[in-house]
Amino acid sequence: MDIKKLLSKLTLEEKIYQLMQIRAYTYLYDSSLNIITGPDTKYGIDEKYVYEVGTVLNCGVAENMIKIQEKYLANSKNKIPLIFMQDVIHGYRTLYPINLGLASSFDTDLAEKCAAMAAKEASVDGIHLTFAPMVDLARDARWGRVMESSGEDTYLNCKMAEATVKGYQGDFGKYNVASCVKHFAAYGAAEGGRDYNTVDMSERTLREYYLPSYKAAIDAGASSLMTAFNVVDGIPAAGNKWLVKDLLRDEWGFNGVVISDYAAAYEMINHGFCEDEKEVAYNAINATLDIEMVSNCYVLKLKELVEEGKVKESQIDECVLRILELKDKLGLFDNPHRSTSPEEAAKFHVCPEHRALARYAATQSAVLLKNEGVLPLSKDIGSIAVIGPLANTGEIFGNWFCNGRADETISVLDGIKNAYTGVINYAEGCSVSRESTDESGISEAVEAAKKSDAVILCLGEHQFDNGECKSKAFLDLPEIQYKLYREILKANPNTAVVLFTGRPLTIRELKDTSPAILNMWEPGTEGGNACADLIFGDVNPSGKLTMSFPYTVGQCPLYYNYYTTGRPKVSDDIKNAYVTSYIDSPNGPLYPFGYGLSYTEFEYSDFNLSGDVMERGGKLTASVKVKNVGKYKGKETVQMYIRDLFGSTVRPIKELRGYEKIELMPGEERVVSFDITEDTLAFYGSDLVKKAESGKFHVFIGKNSACTHFAEFVLK
Fold first, then answer.
1. 563 — phi, psi (to 5°)?
2. Could you tell me the pLDDT band of residue 54, with boundaries at 50, 70 and 90?
3. In the CATH scheme, what is the homologous superfamily, with its name and number, of domain 600-715?
4. What is the tens place of the pLDDT at every residue in 531-549?
5. Which residues are paired to 257 by β-bridges?
6. Residue 261 catalytic?
7. pTM for the complete prediction?
8. CA-CA distance, 215 to 690, in Å (whole number)?
9. Is 308 exposed, middle or buried (0-12, 13-18, 19+ CB in 10 A)?
10. Marked catalytic residue, from 125, 153, 261, 290
11. Architecture of domain 3-80+176-338 in CATH?
């Protein structure tokens, strides 16, 4: 397809309509032109141009996709196919664990395979592009969208972003989809953890911690990028010329499609940045925003701006060209239906192969937070009580579930039944609702616990209590769940808590009193089977936390790689005044980043650094011997952290700079090594140039971010 020739044939109005995105189902209704979108705005589409709109979202199933594309092309003057876009976040019909959980596997190959699986299921249902991955750095558990993220660490976030983009896009074969990385930029730093809230930070912090993951996704080949709802340096992202044109396009060289988030362009008026739709269109086009999602400022005002000479038609041409190039890249001009196939959808959706991958991913993502010998349970045990508001429900697959279904999801109760032939005593105990005070089911649960040899107690937050617009000021379990927990523990101390959550929770009471805590996150379609695999020891837990669990919500935002201060608190074990601390809480987390237990034990020894001086252009190698000294085969994620002791700006107390996940049999040992180069040590200094500065460094290797044993070296 000669894209430039096609572009030259379009009228100004036709070009402008290519920059608009509406809901796909518009084309399935008889009267489709005045569907309400966003905050009581209308599309405002001239009927003769409704079949020249460039892209649609929230599409549905294969049969409808075929109808929509055929109806569109039958009525379109220029016969430019639509791109179908949808949020395919952690699976499509078969769901794997939420992203925060999947990142806990520290397994980028697994993340890539899961994204490829999601792309396959989505592509045959007619999806061409997914609004994923979300790579926003997340340091505040109050923010509901942490469940979509890879957590609080920049290095891990970059690795997961790269792997996910590769999984979705592959080589743009039949079963791949385009990837739209989001939300540019720094959406995860919303003040107070409140969704859509203000973001305010220095450019150095932005470049050092928040921007690298977007750059990693773009370097991995992401075809598209979505701007965020928030402001960056006081200017809304959708109309932020410095952010999108100067940084993203000119500095980073990104020439893919940039789309606003849902009605975010129009919301520049609500921000107080633009007075009306005309100012919105002016600022957005000058920022090189290509597609306005479900608001209509471009359609209403761009032509007028061109006629007034305030916007050049060539600016619009550049945007349209990027959209047409993406359509060509996806092969839509040759085959407008691309991979859409109801027959293949029926074949691939929740097929055994995809279920097996989702099950494996859920076992690798779970984090064992505590275990005093309760787990794993023997399958020879006489009876097991399965109790709790999340024990017998399919609604553990996670929010942003696309086309996933609760009735296709394996509950914990069913998973235990599939793995265990002994007596199972089930009771719900209480509701999962935050508002519930109904204790009527607790007595039945207590009886089930008393007559059983062990208890699996399923607690947590409902999957719809996290995700977009699900910010929380309190991160505790509901009190009704604690009442159930206390009574069950009194009735049967041989109790393991299985926790379901989309974010870190404040679970001090569980940590202090529960014999075992297995955090399943929100594990996806095969969650119950995966839980049984872990409970009975068929799989040894190996996940590591990707976000610190706070001691109390008042610590948020909480993250391991904080700056020291002029008055640092040396240890939470020491109480002293006039240092940076709370008088009613420790500074440190309940569980730190990188933390996670196993049914076996790993011993670290023989920590070695190949030298104590590193020359420019050279490297050092840090190594440690890891031995499985327990009874079970197990996996361990060995983590290397670096601290730059003195710099032109203050540096964090440590930063993850490498990890390796290994598997060892009982008694087996292995030396794990990490290379340290100038790139490992580089950061954005006071001049905002990324480079390694000469001086002293500490290197740590350990089981989590709280590791303290280090070696020192100097970069000359």
1. -80, 145
2. very high
3. Immunoglobulins (2.60.40.10)
4. 999 999 999 999 999 999 9
5. 224
6. yes
7. 0.96
8. 14
9. exposed
10. 261
11. Alpha-Beta Barrel (3.20)
